[in-house]
Design a protein that fits this description.
The complex is a heterodimer.
Chain A lengths: L1 H31 L4 H10 L2 H20 L12 H16 L9 H17 L7 H20 L4 H5 L2 H30 L5 H21 L10 H45 L1
Chain B lengths: L2 H45 L13 E3 L4 E4 L6 E7 L4 E7 L3 H4 L3 E3 L11 E5 L18 E6 L2 E14 L14 E8 L9 E14 L2
Parallel strand pairs in B: 4-5, 6-9
Antiparallel strand pairs in B: 1-2, 3-4, 3-7, 7-8, 8-10, 9-10
The chains are: A mainly alpha, B alpha+beta.
Chain lengths: ~270, ~210
């Protein structure tokens, strides 16, 4: 009777451990991907996002030149890749710190004003309506700002990131401790191997889950907001997926090592 | 084979079997509890997948009886030419009116009607020399011709108006009668962001449908 009870407790505790290990891996992957500004920057660099945004800014600025009566030269060299990269990186850092970020558009604005004045002087044209000229400058500056921040609604949704980050960190530590205690208790009760089952079951679930998810998703033609953002989101999803797979492989290795150690010990006993 | 070794192999096999069983059990549990939610989000993501090859390459077709286009032109494609001989305008018409398209020619506001459909046809273009620089020189009674892929439509300028750029009510989309509305930023000879629009209104006076 007691042996049966022990057996049931063993299976039950192993099942709970499996669920907790799965949760642990999932939260850990979220922590090192979505909640990590460096991960986002890495993915941004991978998709050539900075250069694309830099080109996009030039392209969109040129749309306003056509109706402005000004020459294309006034928007040339208003910004560069380093400037765009710095602004995007600062924006990401501030979002993850839960702080509001104002893109410093003074450089663009001052450059533009100087270039417009130079153009008007060289073409011997007088700005008849300063208000229209100021509106044009504001419009160009807004193009730069909007391309950096993508959407001014984003900070409203991400300002809770620092709190979530803290909760997740505490959650990871807590779950880790609970898993260790649970494995120890299971081991004491059952006197059996306790690590391989949660590791192997979790690894299998991750592989199957990843496979079925990517089979159902049509990510090739995925489009959200614009081409660069879509590519970036796709890269983030693929990154998370590969981190999940790496975790599964690590769990599989842990499982095999445990089985190997057990086997070696048994073989030694047999030899003796 | 010694008993201990047999026991070991049995134990390893048992570990694998239980792992597989737990995996299946949890997958079934997740399937029955969260499959609807997963499906919902997967569908949302898949709806965001747009294939450019999905766009129809069939030509624009017009039904003379219902006076409606059976197949609209694809966004960003040229479906006609706008000609105003009196001021030397001869430009391609693109479907859509975003700023990228307006760099190439005359746009056609996708929310408005097409020539022959009997409603408002709204077409913007930039005020540069290449496009509508001379639009403000158009006089009442001048002829505007739209050569579409499905027919040729002639309009007479009925009036011109200068409107504020933030007042779209001056360019109403209606289906009571056919009105062509061409507009550009105004004035054309100043620098800066233009807050006025010069609009040319045209009434349909002739239509020839391609066979």
């Amino acid at each position: 009777m007691q042996a049966r009870l022990r057996m049931i407790s063993y299976y039950l505790l192993e099942l709970i451990s499996t669920i907790l290990v799965l949760l642990f891996v999932g939260i850990l992957v979220i922590k090192i991907t979505l909640l990590n500004p460096n991960y986002l920057k890495k993915q941004i660099a991978k998709t050539n996002y900075y250069a694309e945004v830099n080109e996009d800014i030039s392209e969109e600025m040129s749309y306003y030149i056509l109706q402005s009566g000004l020459d294309n030269s006034v928007i040339e060299d208003l910004h560069n890749l380093d400037m765009v990269k710095k602004d995007i990186d600062n924006y990401i850092d501030n979002i993850y710190a839960g702080e509001s970020y104002v893109v410093d558009t003074n450089v663009v604005k001052n450059n533009l004003e100087a270039k417009i004045n130079a153009y008007l002087e060289s073409a011997n044209v007088k700005a008849s309506n300063q208000e229209e000229l100021d509106m044009f400058i504001d419009q160009i500056v807004t193009v730069y700002k909007n391309k950096i921040i993508i959407n001014d609604q984003i900070p409203k949704y991400v300002n809770k990131i620092p709190v979530i980050n803290k909760i997740v960190t505490v959650g990871i530590i807590g779950l880790g401790i609970v898993i260790l205690i649970l494995l120890f208790v299971t081991r004491v009760i059952s006197k059996k191997m306790v690590i391989p089952i949660p590791c192997l079951a979790t690894a299998l679930m991750i592989f199957i889950g990843n496979f079925s998810l990517f089979k159902s998703l049509e990510l090739d033609e995925f489009f959200f907001w614009n081409k660069h953002v879509s590519e970036l989101l796709k890269e983030i999803v693929f990154g998370i997926s590969s981190y999940m797979n790496i975790s599964a492989v690590i769990l599989l290795i842990i499982c095999l090592i445990c089985l190997l150690i057990r086997s070696i010990r048994r073989l030694k006993i047999v030899k003796r | 084979m010694p008993n201990k070794l047999k026991h070991l192999l049995k134990e390893i096999a048992e570990q694998f079997a239980i792992s597989f069983f737990f995996c299946c059990l949890l997958i079934v549990a997740i399937y029955f509890t969260c499959s609807n939610t997963f499906e919902k989000y997967i569908n949302i993501i898949n709806m965001m997948s747009v294939s450019e090859t999905e766009a129809s390459n069939l030509p624009v077709a017009f039904d003379i009886v219902s006076k409606r286009l059976e197949r609209n032109p694809n966004y960003g494609t040229v479906w006609g030419t706008l000609k105003i001989e009196s001021v030397g305008i001869d430009l391609p018409i693109y479907q859509g009116d975003d700023l990228k398209l307006l760099k190439k020619g005359v746009g056609h506001f996708a929310g408005s009607y097409f020539p022959g459909e009997g409603g408002s046809i709204i077409m913007p273009a930039h005020n540069t020399k290449k496009f509508f620089r001379h639009l403000p020189e158009v006089k009442v009674g001048d002829e505007i011709v739209i050569e579409a892929t499905y027919g040729t439509f002639t309009y007479n300028v009925s009036k011109t108006e200068i409107i504020d750029y933030q007042d779209p009510s001056k360019l109403p989309v209606q289906e009571e009668h056919e009105v062509l509305m061409l507009y550009t930023c105004y004035p054309v000879n100043t620098v800066g962001l233009k807050t006025k629009r010069f609009v040319v209104f045209g009434e349909l006076v002739g239509a020839e449908y391609a066979s």
